[in-house]
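Researcher: I'd like a candidate sequence for this fold, 482 residues long. If you have to choose between options at a position, lean toward the conservative one.
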């Protein structure tokens, strides 16, 4: 999709391959291909976005609220027709289980409806008019300009749309680059984009970041860089912009969310929440629990119950019944996870579950590592995959000090019963992270809740409410009673 037209791509293409084998002897499956765009096509797409925004004078940025809503409603109703196709591609391209793929699709549809609802409220008459000291003010939220939007592979639909949809509805024009994995699943949606939005309002960039996103950033025309992914890419792209003062950043980055299990915690509850928290979608979630701190008095019991449950998790293809662990889309990930395991072992940890580290071509069974210390890579790195480090603490000050020293600050899970211990801890934890989950695992949703982080974990906030504000600027028209 370029310049609002669906074009038949004549140039070179890149194969899209699934790590899931469709043959009894393992062989990755060829799913299709995408255009290999280069600098020339990227700059054409940029010119299209620029002429649609037209320095704020284009049809889209000046369109009435009701008309923009109609475009968005038209898009979402067409999108719903693509559910089966998109869900199938979510399974094949990134290995997400069928229930989770369906959930991702449905959650995204709901996200769009909630965005429309919030956008209406934002523009509701009562919210817009105010009179102070004889001056009437009509408050508006106005678009910022051209938004470059880059989504992650683990939520190629939902998270990408949590940038794209608010950016669009606020009247910006959007250049959007999908992640390396989870890219074909956008194809069924291209027609809906084309028919719902005016020409040039949305352009899709297929290709490598350095070939398509870099020249766009260098142009200096991008007003907002919105990215969910790693800070290395965010910093590299940001540095290419010739005038950083003119660039707004909306970023969802790395995290190392801890679980802290206090001596009086309900251990069975903590075990089941830590399983889903650390290993849903094979741990490939920025909100995943990436380190577990367990009090020394309950470590044996917790470890025994936790490892038994991990070993009972079913591995298989995403569409199989009750499957929990699935093939990893990134071919190099098992090697990386193995490196973390080897390093932890060399520094004094053991793999404490029986199946931990078992390998197949594109998969490694989750390894539970214990006891963790700060010499280990897995203590410092965001593993984003199937490995669960467990660390012992004697005094609650130990995990608190570690969190304070960490580069990250997204969320924490706190397990404990005694309100007199938990309540003062919450007062501290909210100053270290942005969401404290009591007796439950970390998660982003529901999508109306603020999604952000401290330190290197985020810039800006991505709930629906906040995202509408992040992708716009507050303006107003002032007049006096005559
Ligand atoms: O990768 C990070 C995602 O935002 C995680 O979202 O908590 O809904 O799985 P989730």
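Model: Candidate sequence:
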């Amino acid at each position: 999709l370029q310049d609002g037209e669906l074009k038949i791509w004549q140039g070179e293409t890149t194969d899209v391959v699934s790590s899931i084998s469709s043959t009894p002897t393992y062989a990755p499956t060829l799913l299709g291909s995408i255009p290999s765009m280069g600098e020339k096509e990227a700059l054409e797409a940029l010119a299209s976005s620029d002429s649609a925004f037209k320095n704020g004078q284009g049809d889209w940025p000046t369109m009435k609220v009701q008309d923009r809503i109609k475009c968005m409603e038209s898009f979402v109703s067409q999108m719903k027709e693509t559910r089966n196709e998109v869900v199938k591609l979510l399974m094949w391209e990134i290995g997400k289980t069928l229930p989770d793929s369906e959930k991702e699709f449905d959650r995204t549809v709901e996200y769009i409806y909630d965005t429309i609802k919030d956008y209406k409220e934002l523009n509701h008459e009562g919210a817009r008019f105010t009179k102070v000291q004889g001056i009437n003010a009509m408050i508006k939220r106005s678009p910022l300009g051209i938004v470059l939007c880059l989504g992650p592979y683990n939520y190629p639909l939902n998270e990408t749309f949590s940038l794209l949809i608010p950016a669009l509805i606020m009247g910006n024009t959007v250049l959007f680059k999908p992640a390396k994995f989870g890219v074909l699943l956008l194809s069924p949606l291209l027609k809906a984009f084309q028919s719902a939005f005016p020409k040039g309002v949305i352009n899709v960039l297929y290709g490598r970041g350095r070939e398509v996103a870099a020249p766009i950033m260098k142009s200096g025309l991008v007003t907002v860089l919105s990215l969910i992914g790693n800070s290395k890419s965010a910093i590299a792209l940001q540095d290419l912009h010739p005038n950083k003062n003119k660039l707004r950043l909306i970023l969802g980055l790395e995290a190392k969310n801890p679980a802290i299990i206090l001596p009086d915690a309900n251990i069975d509850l903590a075990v089941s929440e830590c399983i889903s928290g650390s290993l849903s979608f094979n741990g490939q979630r920025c909100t995943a629990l990436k380190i577990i701190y367990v009090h020394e008095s309950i470590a044996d019991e917790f470890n025994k119950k936790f490892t038994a449950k991990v070993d009972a998790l079913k591995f298989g293809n995403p569409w199989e019944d009750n499957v929990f662990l699935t093939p990893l889309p990134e071919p190099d990930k098992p090697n990386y996870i193995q490196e973390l395991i080897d390093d932890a072992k060399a520094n004094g940890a053991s793999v404490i579950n029986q199946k931990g580290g078992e390998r197949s071509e594109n998969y490694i069974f989750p390894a539970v590592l214990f006891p963790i210390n700060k010499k280990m890579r897995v203590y410092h790195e965001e593993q984003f995959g199937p490995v669960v480090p467990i660390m012992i603490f004697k005094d609650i000050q130990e995990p608190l000090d570690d969190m304070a020293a960490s580069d990250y600050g997204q969320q924490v899970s706190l397990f404990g019963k005694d309100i007199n211990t938990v309540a003062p801890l919450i007062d501290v934890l909210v100053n270290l992270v942005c969401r404290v989950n009591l007796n439950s695992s970390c998660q982003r949703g529901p999508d109306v809740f603020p999604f952000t982080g401290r330190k290197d974990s985020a810039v800006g906030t991505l709930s629906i409410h906040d995202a509408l504000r992040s992708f716009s600027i507050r303006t107003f028209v002032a007049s006096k009673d005559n």
